[in-house]
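Ticket #516: bound-state structure for protoporphyrin IX containing FE.
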Amino acid sequence: YPPGPKGYPIIGNLGMVDHLTHRGLASLSKRYGGLCHLQMGWLHVVAVSTPEIAREVLQTQDAVFANRPANVAIVYLTYDRADMAFANYGPFWRQTRKICVMKLFSRRRAESWASVRDEVGFTVRQVMEKTGVPVNIGEQVFALTRSITYKAAFGSSSSEGQEEFMEILQEFSKLFGAFNVADFFPWLGWVNARDFNKRLAKARNSLDGFIDTIIDEHIVKKNNSKTKDEDEEVDTDMVDELLAFYSENASKNDFDESKSTVKFNKDHIKALIMDVMFGGTETVASAIEWAIAELMKSPEDLKKVQQELIDVVGLNRAVHESDLEKLVFLKCAMKETLRLHPPIPLLLHETAEDTVLKGYRIPARSRVMINAWAIGRDPDAWEDPDRFNPSRFLDGKAPDFKGMDFEFLPFGSGRRSCPGMQLGLYALELAVAHLLHCFDWELPHGMKPAELDMNDVFGTHCTEGCSTCRCANLQVELSLLKGKEGENGGVYSCAVVSRRIPFKRGAFFICLNGSG
Ligand code: HEM
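RESOLUTION: The complex was predicted; output attached.
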């Protein structure tokens, strides 16, 4: 195996589970090199932290590394990987991805969504009402991207039910990241199986209850519009698009590239909608928030972006989509933000078979974590890597994020790269352009740019706080594995959960003390 810290018998490096973050793995790579191996129970974990090895994984041996790892909760909550993000590489994934890229994620389609424009306009009006008082940009933009994806999925006029849906998503994200012994020791699956499985079933039932009704309403609408006028143009949402492929009894095993037809059942539609909600909400919100934070910290660059907006758009009208292509410096600032703060800092892949990488053995079903965050700050690839400097992208030879430059991977590269890139960039650029064009910003309470806290928290940023972990930023959830509730010596699993970030990756730990 590649070099890595020595582990204990049976549990291996499970005690280092808190190192499975972009920062933790970057620090291990300083010690063990760009390819590092950890043994987490039965699970082999391989971390990749250099552009050169990333190229080998995402390009040279792309097919071997193109599966996705999934834990017990993910398999159950995605209807046995009936979605695109967690489906393993194969005919089902290939055909589903083709349809999603053509029908759901194209830039042309995004631009036709009134929802992006309307929601950005709504956010601007909300900020306007708060002129003179501090605005919580993070909360504001998370609400924005939540609304964009919700309306794009279910219909542009509906915000009814959004809160209920977000609560369901929140429970999903807690379960995706909850510590489950079976993920590390499959033969210990019985330890907390009953309670955990009950929670999983409850969460999936809530989603079924919510989306099945929406799908049924869409089917009725589709049948009615057929009887009215076949050629009439109707405003379609993602459910409408996917229903064009609907067949009640479709099965994943029907997917065969020799057949030209593709059929989805309700589970596929639900799982694909969840991909969009998880993939497209927090990623874009986090990028907008970091972009504003970095520009607040760098007033010279902020001034340049605002001057460009004045030159291109003027001050007598709002920014329009067609302006975006001309906003060269703004685009550079967005690239620089994604370099320093990739919203998905670790690309999670899994090997389909045994392979050899840089002379080391990598077994089948290894979890491969490509550290896009560390690679974006690699001192061999970037000059002054930790400095926010959008001008570095003015040079035509600067790396691009389209997937061919392995030192810059905010959207990944190769087969599993982000299919929502165009859509994500569109929402990101439009939102930042509007916020900087409509308002002058300053830090609250006389704070100086140098005092701005630019630390990040891996995976979760809880807005609720929690007394249990004595840390105001994290909300943790304990579930009793052994012993009595509240008594010392009881063994708990303790998952860091969050209200804000739907996709939590790996930041969990075990408490061995009943008092918490
Ligand atoms: C700034 C915005 C975004 C960023 C930085 C981003 C980044 C990423 C990254 C890094 C991956 C994984 C690539 C890999 O494993 O190699 C990914 C996958 C994915 N993204 Fe995005 N994303 C963004 C926006 C979106 C949007 C708006 C959508 C949908 C509406 C979306 C849907 C997906 C899906 C479905 C996948 C899984 C693809 C697959 O496994 O085949 N993303 N994204």
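RESOLUTION NOTES: Residues 84-85, 97, 105, 275-276, 279-280, 283-284, 287, 343-344, 347, 410-412, 416-420, 423-424, 428 surround protoporphyrin IX containing FE (CB under 6 Å).
TICKET STATUS: resolved
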